[in-house]
Amino acid sequence: MFAFWLSTFLTLSVLQPGAFFYQQGKATTQLLTVQEFDAFVQDWKQGQELALRHPLFDLTRVSAGSGGVEAISFAGVAHGQRGDISLVFYTMDGDQVYTPPGTVANAHVDERQKEFHIAAVIPRLLQGRTGVVQVTFQGEKRAAYLLKVQF
């Protein structure tokens, strides 16, 4: 029993006072700033209005990208906070799908530039299949929409 208490004391003495509680509180705070919303998007290639609302940013429209390449495009409005809007693709199993550099266009928003348009080439792995697109606002706070899409 003495060995247990000695090892506990030595472990705690290495930490700065209150470090364990600070790190635990920090992780809890970070978890509270992340909110995710799920939606199923269908018939998006012809353009579809979205009504996904969040205090950080709204998604208002999804459509096919322009040009001869299979692409998906999102439009929306941020609510004045500085941050970046980005896209990430996932399989239905939750595996992230690789997107080569230059195939995803992200957007920067702030108090003056509130409207945004982001687009990405649909990865070959997902073309003709159902997958997930995560549209993320990353700034002082973070929020994400998870959209199930039939590509």
What is the CA-CA span between the terminal residues? 61 Å
What general form does the structure show? globular
The structure class reads alpha+beta
Strand content: over 45%
**What's the number of helices?**
2
Please mark out the parts with pLDDT under 50 across 5 or more consecutive residues, or reply none.
1-33
Quick check: average pLDDT? 80
DSSP summary, beta strand count: 10
Q: SSE order, as H and E?
A: HHEEEEEEEEEE
From the alpha carbons, calculate the radius of gyration and give it in angstroms: 21 Å
The strand line-up of the biggest sheet is 1-10-9-5-7
Largest sheet, described in full? 5 strands, mixed
Share in helix: 10-25%
Question: Could you describe the 3D structure shown?
Answer:
The model is unreliable at 1-33 (pLDDT under 50). This protein is an alpha+beta fold and 151 residues long. The protein contains 2 helices and 10 strands. The termini are far apart. The strands form 2 sheets. A 5-stranded mixed β-sheet has the order 1-10-9-5-7. A 5-stranded antiparallel β-sheet has the order 2-3-4-8-6, with no helix packed on it. The protein is 19% helix and 45% strand.
